[in-house]
Automatic annotation (TrEMBL):
<protein>
    <submittedName>
        <fullName>Extracellular matrix protein</fullName>
    </submittedName>
</protein>
<feature type="compositionally biased region" description="Acidic residues">
    <location>
        <begin position="36"/>
        <end position="50"/>
    </location>
</feature>
<dbReference type="InterPro" id="IPR001673">
    <property type="entry name" value="S_mold_repeat"/>
</dbReference>
<feature type="region of interest" description="Disordered">
    <location>
        <begin position="24"/>
        <end position="66"/>
    </location>
</feature>
<dbReference type="Pfam" id="PF00526">
    <property type="entry name" value="Dicty_CTDC"/>
</dbReference>
<dbReference type="InterPro" id="IPR052846">
    <property type="entry name" value="ECM-enzyme_regulator"/>
</dbReference>
Amino acid sequence: MRTSLIMLSFVVGCVVEPTGAVPVQRTENSLPEAGVDADTDDDAAEDTGSEPETAGKPPPQCSSNDDCDDEVGCTINLCGEDGLCRYLPNQKWCNDDDECTIDTCNEQGGAFGGCGHKPRVCDDGNPCTLDECPDPAGCTHVTSGAACDDGNACTNDLCDPAGGCVFLPVVCDDGVMNTLDGCTPAGGCYHTTIECDAASPCPEPDPCQIVACQFGQCIGQPKVCTDNTDCTFDACQGGKCVFVPKPYACPEDGNPCTVEVCGPLGCTANPIECDDGKPYTDDWCDPAGGCQHQPIDGWCDTANQCEVGDACTVAVCLPNNTCTYVPKDCDDGIGCTVDKCDANGYCYSEPKDELCPNGQKCNPNVGSCAQCVAYSDCDDGDKCTVVSCLDGACQYNPSQCAGNEVCDPQTGWCELPTDWCEEDWQCSGKKEPCTKYKCQEGKCVSLDVSCDDGNHCTTDVCDTQLGWCTHEWIKCDDSDKCTNDWCDKDKGCQYEVWNTLCIDCATDNDCPTSLICEGLKAVQYTGVCKQYGCEHSEYTCFGSQCSEPMCADGSGCVYLDKCDDSNKCTSDSCDNEGCMHTPIPDCAP
């Protein structure tokens, strides 16, 4: 038909990634003939998207086609009548012989110019087919009825290419007169026998079943629906007859100008509609080739007649009075970005790190490849380093901790050192056995302590369980009942003969008055403290730095704790230098 707009010859989008281009020398003799599109290959004829040219940017001036070489092999370079260059994509140059790709030409030029290959969309608009492009042979459309399964056992699920899924009622007639036939979505068909009489009539029938009471039983027969047409499914639904065209029931007649449909009279061939809606074409159907759309000569005027093309293109008239569309220029001037145009015609850029050397990052903020874009690009693995990215360069600064805190390299948190202190009592928790700690220059340091108390009557050892030195009294016993066994702290054990009255005895009767018989020898009984339990009055109990000694009659030496200061806000303990009273934090007296 004739209308008021111009045919879209080339539609170039904005999403193809850059690929390598093969330079080619273009001359006026290599241009396409007037009225012939530069791209006639089926594999490249679809609108696919490409890197855009900026709308409004003046093209280079020229006097011949040779002045317009853009060094992109897949473009046709033209010098227009207005003395300005035109660059037309030639997708045929980019043909990869793969029917599963759409070949495009990115005419931006420079590092990103050249061919691109986008996966082809194989949607045939038929809901009953599975659309794929499995190999270079092209799209396949395999019928797939599984898409219409409604999970209802009372329907036959069909797929109509024109209308989508069709769900026909299942016919449950079992051919037995005295049964009532029905269906449940979960279980499917059922057949029951129901008795009836005047007092108990048959239940309300299925609207698609005729029910009557005969000879005491309910008799059911299905309602018959037929339109006497072979290309339809005939069924009763809700008491009404429905006739649904069978998919693919009408064979093609081989005429591309007709479409075969199923109607009340069966299969008929109806003419197809060839109107492309474009005012600048004559539209008709050729039985040899299908719909034809012939451009109308002399129609082109970009200001009025060229239709609104892709949002990423600008209309241009060709010398043969037809419209073509050149891409917008979205070049941001940054060598490491891929510049694109979205569906609304807005330019945007995608940084590509792989276009940068030596592992650098593409940083649009600085307009070039740089060391970093964000601080995460600068991670040095040191948790005590504060990293940042400033103007594309990594910055490393040590963590700043308050007061005496230092950064823990394992966690990155600021903490007080484990050996930090201000006063001696803060070192009390550091208990190496028999070691004294002092706070010196902010750190707890250990001072070696000897367990020797200078007393020859004690055994001096380091008790690793208690954590301090212990001094156990030496038992001076020569097993002679006629000697006085005791210990001198400066000399050690002493054994003095008791007296001259030490004689052999068996019982107390063998001893003089005021003597008792102990063992085999008689000794004077004084009744005062003796070694290990009241043996003589000169025996001395020696204490320690943390205990007060005393001699108890009958039990020997006992020791009283002398470190208890009766203050509930101190923790009382003893080390090698004596009693310690460590303040308890936050304790109210």
